[in-house]
């Protein structure tokens, strides 16, 4: 600690160098001092910032990790230790990609960060040392020094295991249905289908997804109007359409559909289920045709009956006229 002429004390770095005469005899000392008060303050602020950053990192339940340009782990939080089952000192210095079911994909992920500056929702599966797996989505970005030099990657993983399990459960339910099921975006594009939709159209899933829902019906405008009604009203019930298979065969269906929403209540799209009513419609047509034939037969019988009754009435009238004529003619005499 030194004191200025003004009496203000300050922290200094002092360098003392001995002075010698031409014969090498010590004749004194050279004292050079430098005020390092700002340097000490900046160091303390940096330490405080680092402590604050470490507190934030450790407060996160999500696995957080920093990665060097060579792909080595340089720091981790407690979340990373728990999800891998490996201690911090064992993790640091090892390859980031070593802790995933797909190491090449993990390596490609952090290389993308160095190339683009960030990645969002990058899917990976972490393998715990006991063999258990955790599905995660990584969001990562580069971090730099004061001069803008890239020092490494900071990556945060969100555990989506439960979410994926729920999605798989929903997918199982969808695929268990024999009815064609489809999800449609607000733009009318197909976003997902089940096996039933593939069979009824004859088009593979990858060819269906991204195409217009209305393309697969005999009346595209009516199909388009149907899903627009769902977005407008929230649902439709028993909406009749006819699906055209790629081999030109037709399937009559009734669609029941409703909107589905995100966690915040915003509409994401339409979920639609089609019930095949081809056989029912065919049966109805057959019944209608049979009824038509029965009605025609009944009409023919009525016409025949009218004709028969008319002839009988005429015969009765004719007999009456003959009887009347007989009364007018004298018995045993021929008429002139």
Q: How many beta-strand elements?
A: 14
Helix count from the secondary structure assignment:
9
The low-pLDDT segments are: none
How would you name the CATH homologous superfamily of the domain at 41-159? PAS domain
Structural class based on helices, strands and sheet pairing: alpha+beta
Based on CA atoms alone, the radius of gyration comes out at 46 Å
* Major beta-sheet overview: 5 strands, antiparallel
What is the topology, as strand order, of the major beta sheet? 6-5-9-8-7
In the CATH hierarchy, the third-tier topology of the domain at 41-159 is known as Beta-Lactamase
Look at the structure and give the CATH class of the domain at 41-159.
Alpha Beta
Beta-strand fraction estimate: 25-35%
CATH hierarchy: architecture of the domain at 41-159: 2-Layer Sandwich
Q: What letter string, H or E per element, gives the SSE order? A: EEEEHEEHHHEEEHEEHHHEEEH
Average of pLDDT: 83
Distance between the termini: 172 Å
- Overall, the morphology is rod-shaped
Relative helix content: 40-55%
